[in-house]
Amino acid sequence: MDSTQECKEVYSKYTPYFYITQKARYERQTIIREIQNETKRKLIVYYSLGSIGEQDVAPFTDLLHRLNSDNTDDLDLFLHTNGGSIDIAEKIVYMCRYRSKSLRVIVPERAKSAGTLISLAADEIVMGYASELGPIDPQIVMTSADGKMFQAPAQSYIDGLEYISSKIEENPGSENVYFPMLSNINPALIDTCIKAKDRSKKFATKWLCEYMLRDDPCKDEKSKEIAEKLCNVKEYLSHGMAINPTEASEIGLKVKFLDHDDPLWQRIWALYISYNWLATHEGKGIVFEGDYASIIF
Q1: For 292, phi and psi rounded to 5 degrees?
Q2: CB distance 119 to 79 below 8 Å
Q3: Predicted local confidence at residue 188, as pLDDT
Q4: Where are the domains of the chain?
Q5: Which of 156, 221, 250, 265 has the highest count of CB atoms within 10 angstroms of its CB?
Q6: What is the mean pLDDT of residues 59-74?
Q7: How many whole angstroms separate alpha carbon 191 and alpha carbon 182?
Q8: What CATH number belongs to 3-134+242-296?
Q9: Which region among 123-127, 181-185, 206-210, 245-249 has the lowest average model confidence (pLDDT)?
Q10: What are the angstrom distances between the C-alpha of 275 and each of 57, 84, 168?
Q11: pLDDT-based confidence at 20, cuts 50/70/90?
């Protein structure tokens, strides 16, 4: 198509001002449609530099609105996130599962923490050489003595209490030495940490068993093993550690690896770069997008 014909087609649909101001969006949605044509699956995008939370539920509803009402669409979720609320992550899974026949999660670069949990609820995870998942050990947000917010693994608080208890058992009468530490430990915090860890494990075990590992005769045992491994802070010393496609497969996850020169991966990566540009150059850190809906914050 020559440039004259292209201009005629563009301006038959949009006014010049509207098209020019929204051109990047239309280019992204063109890539989305190209991916859909190749995979024969519907594609929705959730790109976020923030945390998964209640504010994401309504935009997700818009993205799922145009799926077939009889739930016969196979769905791909293009996911980029550092994590967030486990409860909202599970709600997103319920929504995607309710409106689709099957669910794949495409991880172009990272789906960490609660994003990894969403990925575990898929039938398959699509990854490339730049993709990473992460540990699912829950993080507890606390306030330091100087009023600053910080995060620490829930397991660290549990381990700290167990360490002090073991020292007192080894040295009867040493309670006074450890009393200053014990006085700063809130029993409610320890209870919260234990429940948060159990919540993360149950999420992973449930969804792995129900979908990704559903055809495995040892699905119950394997689901628990994977959940336990991904929660193990001794295995993953940092919550931000990268789990690459090879390691994800070795753990037992179903990973479809796309090489860097695969045409599908090249489209996925081009789409990711377009969202990355929005975030780094235009300050738009949260995007919900499909071939029809486009919501940007």
Answers
A1: -125, -55
A2: yes
A3: 87
A4: 3-134+242-296, 137-218
A5: 265
A6: 94
A7: 15
A8: 3.90.226
A9: 181-185
A10: 20, 19, 54
A11: confident
